[in-house]
Write a structure and sequence with these properties.
This protein has one domain. Helix 1 crosses helix 4, helix 3 runs antiparallel to helix 4 and helix 3 packs across helix 6. Helices cover 73% and strands 0% of the residues. By secondary structure, the protein is mainly alpha-helical.
């Protein structure tokens, strides 16, 4: 396979797998840490109007979803990429970071969560995903 095509597919695969991990964790989060009474987490307007009811525990799974989705996506991208694995892992991290920034703008969250999420869940996890993938790469 052409190396350029394979590298593009590596990023696409990383984004798809990372998105599935992210949404999977978000989907199960309510059954592990129930949202505040009367909040519909599937409705953006309900979330916006009730964000003041959320406690710190309600932000654990969103952070884990963002961090583990990025970690997994970067890991997959760097396993598949032909060369410059760190670059492609970071490309995945940047895509997810942009999504995180949009999320912070659209859905007002506490400042502490926005800072922790944007600073730790994306670029550091992409870097770590690449480092972990090097343990599994062919020598």
């Amino acid at each position: 396979m052409n190396p350029i095509v394979r590298n593009i597919l590596a990023v696409i695969a990383g984004l798809v797998v990372g998105s599935f991990v992210n949404m999977g964790l978000i989907t199960i989060s309510g059954s592990i840490i129930p949202p505040p009474e009367g909040v519909d987490v599937t409705d953006m307007e309900s979330l916006k109007s009730s964000m003041h009811l959320f406690q710190a525990k309600h932000f654990i799974f969103p952070f884990l979803a963002h961090a583990l989705g990025t970690l997994t996506g970067a890991f997959i991208a760097s396993l598949i990429a032909v060369n410059r694995q760190m670059t492609f892992a970071l490309v995945v991290g940047i895509f997810f970071l942009v999504g995180g920034i949009v999320n912070v703008i659209i859905l007002p969250s506490p400042l502490w969560f926005a800072i922790v999420d944007l600073a730790l869940a994306y670029i550091p996890m992409a870097w770590l995903g690449r480092k972990l993938s090097s343990c599994f790469a062919k020598k």
